[in-house]
Amino acid sequence: MGTESRTGMRVAPDRNLALELVRVTETAALAASQWVGRGDKIAADGAAVSAMRHVLGSIEMDGVVVIGEGEKDEAPMLYIGEEVGNGSPPQVDIAVDPIDGTTLTSRGMSNAIAVVALAERGALYSAPPGIYYMEKIAVGPEAADAIDIRKSVTENLNAVAEAKGMQVRDLTAIILDRPRHDAIVKEVRETGARIRFITDGDVAGAMQAARGHGGDILLGMGGAPEAVLAACALRCIGGAMQCRLWPRNDEERAQLVAQGVDFEQVLQIEDLARGDDLFFSATGITDGELLEGVKFTGKYADTQSLVMRSRSGTIRRIDSRHRLDWVRQFVQIMVD
């Protein structure tokens, strides 16, 4: 179905915008790479946001940021509701995470990536105001019909193992290393399954589970915006994801009740990322199981990206080489 752009025309995406989005994530990764291991995650995030915003503005589209850095008064760049692109058709929603893993970047740790997703206007889920976390479970295509977030961790692990033709003890669960996951960790260990803890970056974690790189299932509570980005990626990969809103305290729980929101409702992947044509791009900032990070070799900087489109199911791995003098000049412009 078509959508109306700022020009008044109703046009849905019909070209592979993912191939244009890769410039966005590449530039954000290159900007963030200047801050890898320097201990300043705010500066790293600021550099990535500035670079990403600049390139998004050059793309032929009428875009609105629906998953971004927060409300306008709290985040001057890539805020929710900000218009990006040159204003011409198609009309689209944009979800961004300039750095999925700011702490990983600042500490020079693995698995930091720059992420952008794009969908037809109105296709991406927006959590109720003031609710920032979701309970999540994500798997790859082989186990897409096996998971049920309403069931126990043990039941889900058994179902995933059966779907993949594996023993439970051979499964690896990817879990954010947080105290709130102590009960989940205990139950996983009691089943005999293995655990790979991640310190940040559960968009990358969900993608790793879906592609079988470093794990078989993602479990636990993480950011609601990251859930939508991960859902876009998994719609392209063919995996499955289920979520439920997760109020962190009584105040957030009361807020949901007052809004008449059912926080027990199971959000399927199609609830988080609807539509027939979603686009996703991720570029590695630091080395990880999913992507290689930015590499500096002589006069060049090398990047590696995953570029995906749900309609075709195409997944491209793109290795790019950038002139270092241009990178430094461009990044300096963005930072200034």
According to CATH, the homologous superfamily of the largest domain is Fructose-1,6-Bisphosphatase, subunit A, domain 1
End-to-end separation: 41 Å
Total beta strand runs: 14
Q: Give the strand content.
A: 25-35%
One letter per element, helices H and strands E, the order comes to HHEEEHEEHEHEHEHEHEHEEEEH
How many structural domains can be distinguished in the coordinates? 2
Question: How many helical elements?
Answer: 10
Binding site for Mn(2+) 1: 45, 69
Keywords: Carbohydrate metabolism, Hydrolase, Manganese, Metal-binding
Binding site for Mn(2+) 2: 97, 100, 226
GO molecular function, one term: metal ion binding
What does this structure look like?
This protein folds into 2 domains: about 15-120 and about 275-330, Fructose-1,6-Bisphosphatase, Chain A, domain 1 (2-Layer Sandwich), CATH 3.30.540.10; about 135-270, D-Maltodextrin-Binding Protein, domain 2, CATH 3.40.190.90. Helix 1 (about 20-35) packs antiparallel against helix 2 (about 40-55) and helix 6 (about 200-210) packs parallel to helix 7. Strands 1, 2, 3, 4, 11, 12, 13 and 14 form an 8-stranded mixed beta sheet that branches. A 6-stranded mixed beta sheet has the order 7-6-8-5-9-10, sandwiched between helices. Helices cover about 30% and strands about 25% of the residues. The longest helix is centred in the first third of the chain and has 16 residues, at about 20-35. The protein has about 325 residues and is an alpha+beta fold.
